[in-house]
Amino acid sequence: MTETPTIGIVGGGLAGSLLAILCARRGFRPVIVERDAAFDEPAATDGRSINLALAARGTEALRYAGVLADIEPLLLPMAGRRLHEGGAERFLPYGQRRDERIYSVARAGLGRRLYELARDRFGVEYRFRHECVGLTASGAQMRSPETVYELETSFLVGADGAGSAVRRALESAGAVRATEEMLDHGYRELTLAPTAEGDFALAPEALHIWPRGNFMLIALPNLERTFTATLFLPLEGRPSFASIGADVRGFFAAHFGDALPLIPALEREYNAHPVGRLGTLTCTPWSYAGRVLLIGDAAHAMVPFHGQGMNAAFEDCVDLDRLFAECGSDWPRVCAEFERRRAGNAAAIATMALENYREMRDDVRSEKFRLKAELAFELERRHAKFVPRYAMVMFHPEISYAEARRRGAVQAEILDALTRDARAFADVDFKRAAALIAERL
Ligand code: FAD
Prior knowledge:
The protein has 441 residues and is α/β, with parallel strands linked by helices. Helices cover 39% and strands 24% of the residues.
């Protein structure tokens, strides 16, 4: 009788728990080692984002794992961006079909629900407060509050996030090379309170943006009728986290006047939350000796401006599970194929995420941007081949990130050509549009 393979998963975060569910369904024995306290214990927030946008790649992964219905009660739909400019609001829809929405979800709630499902429905073993501190010839070295021990595994997955200890151990051994390109902008999170009647203070079915050129405030709704707002701002220069100093209220009054009254704990939260750093992590290769593999942020952390880090990590889990089905326990083949399928896609979404920062904080304010967005929807209605890039990334998991980026670049040129001399929608030459689409897409 062959033994059930033990899959050691370092990190019981979003990717770790979803992968454990998939491994258990496949008949493997997943063991999760998680540095933090158990979800049932009260834990201090570590400053990581409080809510996240879940899009179709993420929901499809949850559906594939058979747990989407369990997660749905945690989701709040967002149908578009609501821009706050000059005291007025303007709505820019994300898509034009009813199901083209993204969902706000609390990181803690999602993490806990995945853990409960993994433990109760799929019998996954979690070892909380156990930390991976190194690799061994047949697994990894773990430190618990009581002892240091070796976890022997058939296959080890590093799902331990951007600061991955598994990746660092591989770097120290000279087995992988990683670079982290840090952005010179950071972020701080704040809470928009509900109204006195206990309702949402802003329209809940949207991602709110206060675009201000070189910086922005965004807000995503929470189930308890608050919004989590995130201020993205340069670290140095003017204005910046350095230049605001103690005058947070003055800064908000000058730039986010309509949001200010909604943040009752502004100074307290601003001072209590550290400035979060953002960066793009590139690592190559993602595996070692055909038995250790990095996934999710451990392999490819990105800036959060396309809201795809978790979605990409979930897609990693699905692709890895498909490879388990194809390759069985031929782990070296699993590793090689995984990287072959995923690396180009990870690089593409990391680049698009960087590009989206400029779009959110600046481009959305221009008439030209809005004309192009409107035109892109019209071209999508008229031509099956034309799908706006945002929609390809967020609503079309069947189109890979790399393909979305490639087609998106061609479409951007088409939109540029069609709007170069157009001031309004009526000026667009749709015969030329049809010819360009037929020729280039
Ligand atoms: P993580 O979620 O970081 O999980 C890693 C786990 O490993 C943690 O539980 C950690 O405690 C554990 N761990 C770490 N080291 C060890 C160790 N040595 N031993 C054992 N355990 C360890 N993504 C989206 O899709 N949509 C969004 O809207 C979005 N918004 C974001 C906003 C911000 C401000 C930020 C910073 C990120 C955002 N992301 C978003 C990205 C998303 O948070 C990550 O891509 C996602 O959490 C990656 O999941 P993961 O499981 O790979 O890593």
